[in-house]
Specification:
The chain is an alpha+beta fold. The protein contains four helices and seven strands. Strands 1, 2, 3, 6 and 7 form a five-stranded antiparallel sheet that branches. β4 and β5 form a beta hairpin. It is globular and about 50 Å long.
């Protein structure tokens, strides 16, 4: 849950942001991006990586291939996709580290239109830092969280081998 990092060895404290590409009717219909868009996005992602901004990024399958789990007290109800409200769905995301929300906004403004030929939207949301949770996030819970993150990182490295 720690959100402050040093950006790519460039010094300075950064915040993490989730950059959310909203779905459209076409993306929900499974229309794949063109070679041109994939090339433009690839160049943009290269810029993000070189600047020490991009931590992760993925496109998502349409909601027809997904599911939701609804929580109501102790009850869990599974709802299979597709989901009706396209404007509320996510087509893809990035995880970035930036010095400020303003920097994240400037990067998004440089992004190729993720849905050429139609209106599209990208949402920027800051990721919580451990301090944001206050006293409820006790030192014991913080240590447990750090251990889990270290284990997840080890699994990630092992999977790459």
């Amino acid at each position: 849950m720690t959100g402050m990092r040093t950006a790519g060895g460039k010094g300075g404290t950064t915040m993490r942001f989730m950059i959310i590409v909203k779905a459209t009717k076409k993306s929900e219909a499974g229309v794949m991006p063109s070679e041109q868009l994939l090339s433009e996005m690839g160049k943009f992602n290269e810029e993000l990586v070189k600047a020490g901004v991009m931590l992760a990024g993925e496109g998502l399958q349409p909601s027809s291939k997904g599911a939701r789990v609804k929580f109501s007290g102790g009850k869990r109800t599974v709802i299979d996709g597709p989901f009706a409200e396209t404007k509320e769905l996510v087509a893809g995301f990035w995880l970035w580290q930036c010095k400020s929300k303003e920097e994240a906004i400037e990067w998004v403004k440089r992004c190729p239109n993720p849905m050429p030929g139609e209106e599209s939207e990208i949402e920027i949301r800051q990721v919580f830092k451990a301090e944001d949770f206050g006293a409820e996030f006790t030192p014991e819970l913080r240590k447990k969280e750090e251990r889990l993150r270290a284990q997840a990182e080890q699994l990630k490295r092992a999977a790459k081998k």
